[in-house]
Amino acid sequence: MSDYDVVRVFCGPRGGYGNELGVVREGSVMPDPHERQLFAEKLGFSETVFVDDPERGVIDIYTPTLRLPFAGRPCVGTAWLLDVPELVTAAGTVGARQDGEFCWIEARAEWVPPRTLRRYATAAEVDALAVPPKGEWIYAWAWEDESAGRVRARAFPGRVGERGDSRSGGAGACAGGIDEDEATGAAALLLTDRLGRALNITQGAGSQILTAPQPYGWTEIGGRVVLER
What we know:
single chain, alpha+beta, catalytic activity, Phenazine_PhzF-like
């Protein structure tokens, strides 16, 4: 098996929670897309990143079942690990910066696959939600403090046949798919783009995601990253 790093992305203030990500720093040892897909399936993380050029930040992102042009959490985690000013993804070039305890990336909402953003009246309603039936990808959210931009959110991928893994940090992960995703940068990007304002999101059991709209349709996504191994 090839060497790989494991980082947790969008950790809480004390370094807990977040979602695990696998990063193969030497992507050249596994150039074939089919081989990469099999390796991502074997690792079982929500996403695995293959670094094709560490100096330029060229990366290739896979879930256990498909290749992704862009994903928020993999970009934040890999940008932190490589400490580069940008990443080159299949969707486009992603700006990156380090700011104290947070790593930030800059991306576009049109790079994100469709998600249902479902608003609830209170954070308590979001907390009480049961996992919905498989089907649409739902990002459930409510204001904790609208004036301060504080949001409570939970993510339900709802993809039939999508493989999950308990190491991914998703609550209720099972062989048939991840019932709940602990931390999802792309969905946070979509919500920020829709609301047009900076957000401080608490997702899942305690992950933290920060976002901020930028000029010309760009959005920044930031979070803490911890090296697991």
